[in-house]
Amino acid sequence: MSWVRLSSVSVANNSNIVAINAGNTADVKVGDALLIDGFDLVEVDGVFANQLQLRKPWAHAAQSSAQAVVVPTFGDFNIAVKEVRKLKNDHANNYAQMESFWTELGEVTFHAADGSSFTFKTARQTADDLLDIEQRASLALMTATGLISQYDEDLGDAYRRVLDAQNAASGSAQSASRDASSAAGAAAEARSSEQKVLDALSSVENPMSRDKNLSDVSDLSAAQDNIGLTDALAISVSTTRFLLKSHPII
Question: What's the confidence (pLDDT) of residue 77?
Fold first, then answer.
C-alpha cells in the first residue's frame, strides 16, 4: 500500500491527539505509523475523520500545521495470513472429519469459514441406527402378528362355544318340545280313558236304577238280594267318580 499524505496536522506536547487540518484519513488503519516531518515514527492507535489517536503521548515540541505522512504496516497482510492459515487448518480438519464420516461410528463436526460448525452422525452410525430401527420394527411386527393370531384363535374359540351353546339350547328346546308333546298325548289318552270310565259308570248306573223298580218282579225275594248287590255296586261307582274328580286328568 502507498503512504497516506497529510498536508497539515497539529499536535500539542504530551498529547496523544493529532488534529488533521488538511488530508484524508480514509485509508489510515490502526497500527499504521505517523511520521511528522523532522521526527520519529509514532504508532497510530485510533483513526477518526479529523484526528488520529496515538498509542503514546507526543513527547516532542508542539507542532502546528506541520506536514506528515502515514506509513502503512503489514497488519492487514498478517491478518490475511492468519485467516489463510485458519482456512487451511479448517480444511485439513474437515478433510479428516470427512474420512471419519465414512469409516467410523459416532459423530463428526465440520467447520465453516465464518466460524460456524455443523455436527452430523457418521454414515456407519446412521447405517447402524437404521438397522436397529429395522430390527425393532420387525420385532414389533412379529409381536403384533402373534397377538393378532392369538386374537383370531380366541375369537374362533369363543364363536365355537357360542355355537355349541346355541346347539345345546336348541337340542334342549327340541327335547322339551318332544317331552311336552308326549305328555300332551299321554294326557289326551288319560282323558279318553277317563271318559271311557265315566261312560262305563253311566252304563252301570242306568241299569241299577231300573233294577230298583220291583213292581213288575215276580220273585220279590230274589230281586231284593239283587238290589243289595246293586247298592254295593253303586257305592263303588260313586267312589270311582269321587276319585276321578279329586285327581282330574290334565
Answer: 53
- Tell which CATH architecture fits domain 4-73: Beta Barrel (2.40)
Check if the beta carbon of residue 101 is closer than 8 Å to that of residue 108. yes
Give the residue carrying C-alpha cell 346347539: 167
156, 162, 168, 173: CA torsion to nearest 10: -150
pLDDT of residue 177 exceeding 80: no
- Whether residue 197 contacts residue 240, with contact meaning beta carbons closer than 8 Å, is answered with yes
**pTM: predicted TM-score of the whole model, two decimal places:** 0.33
Contact 52, 25 (CB under 8 A): yes
> Could you tell me which residues are beta bridge partners of residue 4?
70
Helix, strand, or coil here: 30? Answer: coil
pLDDT at 70 over 60: yes
Q: Which residue has the higher pLDDT, 242 or 131?
A: 131
Does residue 225 have a pLDDT over 80?
no
Joined grid coordinates for residue 163: 355355537
**Residue ranges per domain, the chain?**
4-73, 79-121, 193-246
Report the DSSP beta bridge partners of residue 43: 33
C-alpha–C-alpha distance, residues 195 and 248, integer Å: 11
Which stretches within the chain are classed as H helix? 75-103, 123-211, 220-246
